[in-house]
Amino acid sequence: MDRSEEGVLNQNVSGSTALDRQEPDITGISAFAADESDLLSPRTVGGEAKVEVAHIESGRALALADFSPPSVGPGERLIRFAYRLGIPGSMLSAPMGKKARTRLLATVNNTLPGHVAAGTALRAGHFLIHGAKTPIAQVDYAGAARVTPPLERVVHSFSWLTDLEACAPREQGTAVAERILTAWLQANPKPPGKPGKGPAWAVGNTGARLMNWLAHAPLILSGEKALRNRTLAHISDTARWLDRHVHNAEDGLAEVAGWSAIVAAGLLLPDGRPRRLYGEAGLVKSLGELMGDDGGVLSRSPVAQMEAIALLVRLRNCYHATRRDAPKAVERVIEMLIPPLLALTHGDGSLGSWQGGWAVDGDDVNALVRATGVRTRPLRDVRQWGYQRVLAHKSILQFDTAPPPLPAHARHGCASTLAFEMSHGGHRLIVNCGGSASGGGLVPVRLEQGLRATAAHSTLTLDDANSTAVLINGAIGSGVSEVDVDRKTLVQENGGNATRLEASHNGYEARYGLTHRRILILRDDGTELRGEDLLLPANRKGKRGKVGFAIRFHLGSRVEVGLTADGQGAGLALPDGSYWQFRSAAGEVTVEDSLWVDGQGRPQATQQLVIQGMVSRGGGNFGWLLKKMG
Predict the structure, then answer these.
(1) Fewer CB under 10 Å: which end of the chain, C or N?
(2) HSE-CB of 585 using CA atoms within 13 angstroms
(3) Closest-CA residue to 398 (of 337, 457, 453, 469)
(4) Which of 336, 351, 372 is the last residue of a domain?
(5) Could you give the CA distance from residue 513 to residue 507 in angstroms, rounded to a whole number?
């Protein structure tokens, strides 16, 4: 990011002092090092080590899953083909019969968790989104006066129905639901001719809205007959609109939302069999284009991963309501989506802050996983998802070893390549700022682009520039196109084992002729992380001159920090009483202000450790150490 965008992310803290405790002597604290210079160099592990190598595929390409439509007989294939051509479902289901009136064939049992606080706020008269309150009466439901993106999504997707259902018995929430629904229907009396006519008729919002109307029908169809009939007519019109326009979705996740709604309408509306057959084929194909072959969505966003899981769980509930089993492909995709999500959880179960996501609370993650019924472990065989995870006793390390998502998949793409997060027990030690997707709640929209920048992540930057260009509207430009990754297990005869991760990217080659390589070594007891950041000339003959560099370590929100007397390190105290020492062999360590977006998408003032200076265009290397004391 440029200096004007950094703002709060890059302001110096004046008068930082060391914590009021004795600074430990780190000489000889590493079982792998004989002196401090060796201790700060992660290239060797001291003594003779047996090395178990696990080579990881390069992150340069994202392979799509190849899914075929559900297997059906010749007659059903003909029906599906005819419906795709535009023949009405009533003619295909009962050619000589009377057209059935619009009604719902079953009541869906919602198993997805909602937010009680948000539902309670709705009953009190306002939307509560990422800490920001907006009165229900002040929302422009037509979408002509644009509101903040998070509020826009919640209002037009009707995801708030889940929150309202979670906070009180249905009878107490019906009046609120009907009030908002009536205002929305008055502002949107009929579907437009094509998508893009305001946020209400984006395919993603429309698909989610239809799904929520069908899943929470008792909340919106229990009132007066006139509103019920009007709502049912709008449900039918919306389903037909999606039939025609689902292919115009904004991105892969929006298309999955659209196809899921088409299938749900096919299950729950009369004469729906042709629509269901048509929708199932489109859904399975769109799922194959949404995710890689290891189950990670191609946007690489954990929040998008959760949205995809929630869509499919809600669709499965619609199948169960009609006493059907979901297609095997849908069940298999749900199973595939869970391990990558769990790979980005920390010790308290909350998510790491990656690709626009915030540190989603562990309770929310666990509730979603429980709703799937899937019992599995975090992803270990990383291919397209691109995040390396190391579990070392009480410590968890997450390392981004892939390029940012392609523009076609990026909703909130971030230049985070080679950033890492680390937690110990239930506390975060090193984090990324995160939360650009929550911009418009308590996080100001003007910070959204800055939160996506390289400087908002715990990694190295050159000349305050992003390793990949950060564009408006969540898009990503040129920069990192190739990441090489290597993972090894270092086995010591004395039992002092460690995991070694090495990765490099080419994001700075075009501008500065330098490749950034990062090496991380985490001991298996979780008490020591050694790192080295190397800048290597991309060509044999390096460029002349120097360029500024900065290596940032954003700290968890409750970490107390104090600089050491020699300026080469800092002491870090965690809430659980543990004490960590940070040491640098790359220059002076300073403390600056930072920002971290918490589990509810709200900004929290934090601090960051920064090592900065000038480096030759011919390259350089910078070692550092993070060690638990005592």
Answers:
(1) C
(2) 21
(3) 457
(4) 372
(5) 10
User: Residue 38, SS3?
Assistant: helix
Beta-bridge mates of residue 396:
391, 423
- The number of folded domains in the chain is 2
The DSSP-derived string for 144-200 is SS---HHHHHHHHHTTHHHHHHHHS-HHHHHHHHHHHHHHHHHH--S--SSTTSSGG
Q: What is the DSSP string of 332-381?
A: HHHHHHHHHHHHTB-TTSPBP--TT-----HHHHHHHHHHHT-------S
Q: 208-257, pLDDT tens digit by residue?
A: 999 999 999 999 998 889 999 999 999 999 999 999 999 999 999 999 99
pTM above 0.85, yes or no: yes
CA distance 351 to 371: 18
Residue 131: exposure state from Cβ atoms within 10 A (0-12, 13-18, ≥19)? middle
Write the single-letter amino acid at 325. Answer: D
Answer positive or negative: Cα dihedral of 471, 476, 480, 481.
Answer: negative
Residue 245 within a domain:
yes
Amino acid, res. 485: V
Helix 160-167 and helix 203-215, axial crossing angle in degrees, nearest 10 = 30
Range of the domain at 314: 111-372
Other CB atoms within a 10 A radius of the CB of residue 426 amount to 15
